[in-house]
Structures are given as C-alpha cells and as structure tokens.
Design a protein that fits this description.
This protein is α/β, with parallel strands linked by helices. It contains 16 helices and 22 strands. Helices cover about 40% and strands about 20% of the residues. Helix 14 packs antiparallel against helix 15.
Length: about 500
C-alpha cells in the first residue's frame, strides 16, 4: 500500500484495472486529477474513457509530455511481463516522472477489481526473476469459502501475503497468528484498510499473539478456533543466525510444528498445508535440518491420523489431510538479499555478494503464495508438492540488475564485494533429493514429488533425544540448551549435515 499526494495523475494502461482506478480517483476527489491514460492498444488510442483521453503509443507520447513537479504515473497493467514493466519504467523515468506507482500483479487482482489502496511505489524486484504465472484467485480459493482459516507466521513475508490474497477467498474467519506483536498489528491493520476500500470479501479478521512452542496453548487455541484449514508458514528462517542459535531453531521449528500438528489432528482440522524450503533438501544448516524434520512430521501425520482413525472412529482427525509445499527463495522477503542490496546501493555501496558463482532459485512472494493457495486446494493427502522455480539465478547477476535499476553501473558507480560463504550456506541449492522424482500435475508450475525409496528416520526417537535439550528436564538438566549435543544428534541422523560439519571443521 502507499500514501497519496494530490496532483496530476497519468494512468498507464486503459484496461479494466486502469478504468477502476480512474473511477475511484474521480469519486473520492482528493487524490488528484487523472490527466490521461497512456496505452499502446491502437483500438483505445484516441478514445475517451470516463471522459479521460487515451494517448499513445506510450513511448512516443511520453517524450511529448510537459510534466509538472507533482505529476505522477500509476502503472495499471497487472498482467504485464517483467520485461515490459522494465521498459515502461525506463520510458517514464526518461520522460521525467519522479514518482511512479504500480498495481500488484494479476495474482492479487480478482476479476479486474483494482483499488487505489493496492498501489505502491515501483521497486527493483518488480523487474527481477521471471514473469509470474497467472492464477485465477477466485476459482483457486473456492475451497476456502465459508471456512475458518489459520495462517501461522502471518506477520512474515509469506504469511502476510497469503493473508492478503485470502481476503478474496470468501472465508468466514481469517486467523492471523504470530509471536511478533508489531508484525501482527501491521498486517491486521493493512487487511482492515483493504477491506474498507472494497478489496476482497468481508471475512472476520482475528489477530492472535502466541507461541507455537507452547503445546498447551496451541491445543487450547485450536479448540476455540475450530479451524478448517491451516497454512503453516511460521519458522525461524535466517540461516547464519540459526547457526548461532541452533537450539532455538530446533525448538521453534521442529517442536513448534509438532505442537501445531498434534493440535490439528486432535481437533479435526480438515486441511493442513506446511510450507517448506529447498534448504530442507540434503540439509547442511541447522535451519535446513529443522525444516527437513518438519517435512517428515507433516508427511507422516496423515498416515498416523488414518491409523488412529482405524483404532478409534470417534477421533476428530478422521478426515484430516496433511500436505507439504516446497519452494526456493522468494524475492524481497524480510532478511533476504533484495532489501539488503537496496540499502547498500542507496548508501553508495559496496554491494556484498557471497561468491561470484552462488546461485539461487527465485520466485516473487505473490506468485509463490498464489501457487501455495492453489496447491492447498488441489493437493492430496500425505503428498509433497514442489513449485516450479524455473532456472536458478546467479546472485551476482541479481546485484548487477538492481544497481542498474537505480541508473548506475556495476563496478563503475557501485562496487561489488565478495565476502565468502557464511556458516550454513552453500553455493547451490537443490530442489529435490536424488531419490525424489518431481512429476507434472494438471496445474501450471505445481509439481508432485514421488520417491523410489524412503529416507529412514525414526521421528519419535529423534524428538525424544532433542526434547531435553529444548525443554528443561529435571532428571537430566545437564542436557538443557547444550548446542554441541544437539549438533551431534543431528549429525548422527542427517548425513548431509554431518558431512558439512566435517568439511567446515577441516577448513577451519
């Protein structure tokens, strides 16, 4: 969302989204005057829409504009490709626009129902990565209509975007759960403002502050919520930080997820969608190991629920369905490299890159969330789904693209400094294990992961070994918060983590 100035506005794109914005600006009468639409469609150029002239082609007209200091442009083409957005940005900046706003992508615009409050300042990440797939939100979210939906980690990058898109789901209640008071307050206020401006449907929004690690509270909470669907995004995610705080990573990610799954099974949650990461594949970091173990918890929960059902038909978990959705990095998430690069460029550099050949898979947050929501509706019991991330991107190339967004040249204006791998990092990530086989589904960019063997792991035993390290046990207090013991347990059961630790020690 954005703040507004009163001035002369040029709307780029005279389609449904642009027309909706023009009507809203005219009706409210406080955000300025729409001077013209700019469009490349020959059938629109020369017409008047809402009594506003449509000028074009954009490149030719932009050179002739006589701009005033307060003039601004709003790009209202939600389906525009990354390449076209980059071209429009260059044209508008060359024409003299200092302030350029943009509507969110098509995945966040339902049936062309665009609103001014959804606009925001254009950002480098709008040009990075591939063009997102178009997902029909209203159709994809139909399975959530009338349901009670819980989003854990709702104040985070993925959780908050899920919540924004869920406004269009027709859910009866939307529970925003997190342990950060400020982040939950912010997304709660944002969603309420969006609703006031006509975005989405009128779900009852319920902010909840809590801690997944509190097993009794999570059990009590799901008793009261009667949630039908859970999207579990909450986790400690910062790799080097978790290397410094390994017990916290296991306590929050593994045992927090275990508490949530237990409560979900007990209280009849119908659909549980666990969000995971490529760092869970052959993990070399404590964070990656914690997410790999969480994957196993979620995938095994479905068979456990069915087994329990066969023994006691009165259990609420009879129809519970647990699934996992795995994907790589998302552009612009808090703590990620895109915001870091922005700050480094804005202070004059240098931009710090780990290694010239480091690569990562990238997807925009809105696209990832749209696909997660779709997978949650089409996914089957006990299955692992993988979002098609396209081709990996070199971090160095990403840094150079961002520097050029600011009209500067890499190395000439802004230096790039290589700082080396940090603890828990590797040059390349994998999206699947060697024994996993990603197969296409009927849904674009959603793959189902099958396997020709099973990674042997006794989750009950591992939890029992790790529990006294995370929870004080008076019978064995010497284990409490013992990070070395924790690492040794993880190395024993996760070969890839053991190899990484041996390699790291050898280098040291």
């Amino acid at each position: 969302m954005t703040t507004f100035k009163s001035g002369r506005l040029y709307i780029i794109g005279a389609g449904f989204a642009g027309q909706n914005l023009a009507k809203e600006i005219k009706t409210k009468g406080i955000f300025g005057e729409v001077v013209a639409f700019l469009d490349d469609d020959p059938e629109k150029i020369g017409r008047r829409i809402e009594d506003i002239p449509v000028l074009g082609p954009i490149r030719d007209v932009a050179r002739l504009l006589r701009l005033h200091p307060a003039d601004e442009a709003i790009i209202a083409i939600p389906s525009a490709s990354r390449e076209y957005l980059a071209e429009l940005y260059r044209i508008l900046k060359h024409a003299g626009f200092e302030r350029i706003r943009i509507l969110p992508g098509i995945s966040q615009i339902v049936d062309g129902d665009a609103h001014l409050i959804q606009t925001r300042s254009i950002d480098p990440q709008d040009f990075l990565g591939r063009t997102p797939v178009t997902v029909n939100l209203r159709q994809s979210l139909n399975y959530l209509r009338g349901k009670r939906v819980l989003v854990t980690g709702a104040g985070g990058s993925i959780g908050s975007e899920l919540a924004r898109q869920l406004l269009s789901a027709g859910a009866a209640r939307l529970y925003l759960f997190g342990h950060g008071e400020n982040s939950i307050y912010q997304i709660d206020r944002e969603l309420r403002l969006l609703q006031e401006e006509g975005v989405g449907e009128k779900a009852v929004i319920v902010p909840i502050i809590g801690d997944l690690k509190d097993r009794d509270y999570m059990d009590w909470l799901l008793t009261k919520m009667k949630a039908d669907v859970i999207f579990h995004t909450a986790a400690y995610k910062h790799v080097p930080m978790m290397e410094e705080n390994p017990v916290a990573a296991i306590d929050n990610n593994l045992f927090g997820t275990d508490n949530l799954i237990a409560a979900a099974k007990k209280h009849g949650v119908k659909r549980f969608v666990h969000i995971t990461t490529d760092k869970a594949v052959e993990p070399v970091s404590v964070y990656g190991v914690s997410k790999f173990l969480c994957e196993r918890l979620a995938l095994e929960a479905n068979s456990q629920a069915k087994s329990a059902e066969s023994q006691d038909e009165s259990l609420d978990s009879a129809d519970s369905s647990f699934m996992v959705v795995r994907f790589g990095n998302v552009l612009g998430s808090r703590g990620s490299i895109v915001p870091l690069f922005q700050k480094q460029i804005e202070k004059g550099g240098p931009v710090t890159v780990t290694h010239p050949e480091m690569k990562r898979w990238f997807m925009t947050i809105p696209e990832a969330c749209s696909l997660v929501l779709k997978a949650g509706g089409v996914g089957e019991n006990g299955e692992l789904y993988l979002l098609d991330m396209g081709e990996p991107v070199r971090i160095r190339d990403l840094a150079e693209q961002m520097i050029r967004f600011y009209g500067l040249e890499p190395e000439e204006d802004i230096g790039i400094e290589y700082v080396g791998l940090r603890p828990g990092e590797r040059l390349d990530e994998k999206l699947t294990w060697d024994f996993e086989i990603p197969m296409p589904t009927d849904h674009d960019r959603i793959l189902i992961v099958k396997h020709d063997e099973q990674y042997e792991l006794d989750m009950s035993m591992i939890k029992e070994k790790l529990r006294p390290i995370c929870r004080l046990d008076q019978s064995q207090p010497e284990k409490y918060r013992d990070s070395e013991l924790l690492r040794n347990i993880l190395k024993k059961h996760i070969p890839s983590y053991a190899r990484e630790c041996i390699s790291s020690y050898a280098e040291a």
